[in-house]
Amino acid sequence: MLNLIWAVMILLAVLYGALAGNMSQVTNAALDSAGEAISLCLTMAGVVALWMGLMEIARKAGLIEKLTRGISPLLRLMFPNIPKGHPAGDYIATNIIANIMGLGWACTPAGLKAMEELAKLEAQRGNPEYLEAGQKEPVGQARREVTAKPTGQMGQVSAHAAGRDDGKDSRKPESAGRSRRASNEMCTFLILNISSLQLIPVNMIAYRSQYGSVDPTAVIAPAIAATLFSSLVAVLYCKWKDRRN
Fold first, then answer.
1. 64 with 95, same domain?
2. Do 76 and 123 sit in the same domain of this protein?
3. Fewest beta carbons within 10 Å, which of 23, 79, 93, 204?
4. pLDDT per residue as tens digits for the range 155-173
5. Could you tell me if 98 and 190 lie in one domain?
6. Mean pLDDT taken over the chain
7. What is the mean predicted confidence (pLDDT) over 173-195?
8. Domain ranges, residue 144
């Protein structure tokens, strides 16, 4: 959808420039913007490399582990159904810490890994939408299906739950071909990731510095206030939805 929006905007800009007789300005603006994009990418690469290095030093020094323990009460509050010690919890903690420190790009890998682990957790819970083709459902899940089926289908259900006599399970999960739905933990994590509190908006400071701001760090206080409010709203919204469900 975003690709379509950008394509339409570029097309409209080119058409307007052609109709207004300003194609030379459009061409110059495109070339200048290309150069600015390369310069901005180099600047941001340096910023990200610096903060990623600091994050690695903090990890080896044990600071990240201490921060993870510090936010563990918040994680237990927001994700009560994630088993203690599950890898998803570690990745979620790393993502939140990186966001708080303003490293929006650095938190992306941890966020992707957290989503992968949450998907594995749904498969372990027996959610048919997350079971791969040919993967057997947990025994408890099969038993629940047997008790839920009408009496006339008991013979078919028994074969369905136990598999064929040769020990092979030729069934596919009920959701084969069906799109997955995000779990409660996935939705909560996504909302927290989007609204995350930021103490040092590194990316915004780098952008302001790149484009000649007189005081690039003047955005720190407004960013803390805005992201603190958004984070509180996100937490309240997630808990409200959990209570309703």
1. yes
2. yes
3. 23
4. 443 334 344 444 444 444 4
5. yes
6. 75
7. 74
8. 134-171
